[in-house]
Design brief:
By secondary structure, this protein is an alpha+beta fold. It has 2 domains: about 1-80, Glutaredoxin; about 90-205, Glutathione S-transferase Yfyf (Class Pi), Chain A, domain 2, CATH 1.20.1050.10. About 50% of the residues lie in helices and about 5% in strands. The chain is built from 8 helices and 4 strands, in the order E-H-E-H-E-E-H-H-H-H-H-H. It is globular and about 45 Å long. The model has no long low-confidence stretch (mean pLDDT about 95).
């Protein structure tokens, strides 16, 4: 099992945290993609993922799986340990919903701000920028943070009372936010408390 990724980038980080939660980091081989030199746009990489994103999971039978939720679902079912995606139909549905909200309203919004309204990864990679739209996504991200603060006022975790893939996605969104100066507003005390708790969780602290 091989994971093609860029260490410490937000989406690859999601998969690495999931593997750590399942005590499975040593069960995979990581192959670095030279994204800064556009390896992700090469013909060889596009054969693995035609949408040019990392990470990509390569299975022993030659199957390639892209998109973090799909990769993490495979990891969750393949390796033993506490479930990250839910067990009962209700758990699976709620976690899927909250993971998607963390992705679209926080992580993806921050990513769009970074790639469109800042210098991002530089002019060679950041083509067709729309700064106005990027700034709108920054505002969307702050609304997403406020939403999750309200969720965490009632629950210990993003999708209820157990840690899940929704927490992984929200955490990685906040990591990306910190990188591009989108900080947790001071009045979002529930989100900040959750953040502080996540920072010392073994899979994340490592």
């Amino acid at each position: 099992m091989i994971i093609h990724d860029v260490e410490n980038f937000p989406n690859p980080l999601r998969v690495r945290i999931a593997l750590a939660e399942k005590n499975a980091l040593d069960a995979v081989t990581f192959k670095s993609v030279d994204l800064m030199n556009a390896e992700h746009r090469s013909e060889a990489f596009l054969a693995k993922n035609p949408f040019a994103g990392v990470p990509v999971l390569e299975l022993d039978d030659g199957t390639f799986i892209a998109e973090c939720p799909a990769i993490i679902e495979y990891i969750d079912h393949h390796f033993a340990g506490p479930s990250l995606t839910g067990v009962t139909p209700k758990e699976r549905a709620v976690i899927s919903m909250m993971q998607r909200r963390a992705e679209t309203q926080v992580l993806d919004a921050i990513a769009s701000y970074f790639h469109h309204a800042t210098d991002g990864l530089g002019p060679a990679l950041e083509t067709n920028q729309n700064k106005t739209w990027g700034q709108d996504q920054q505002a969307r991200a702050f609304k997403g943070l406020a939403y999750f603060d309200s969720v965490l006022a009632k629950h210990a975790y993003a999708a209820g009372e157990e840690f899940s893939v929704a927490d992984i996605t929200l955490w990685c969104g906040l990591v990306f936010g910190g990188f591009c100066n989108i900080q947790i507003p001071a009045d979002l005390t529930h989100l900040q408390a959750w953040h502080d708790g996540m920072a010392v969780r073994p899979s994340i602290a490592a």
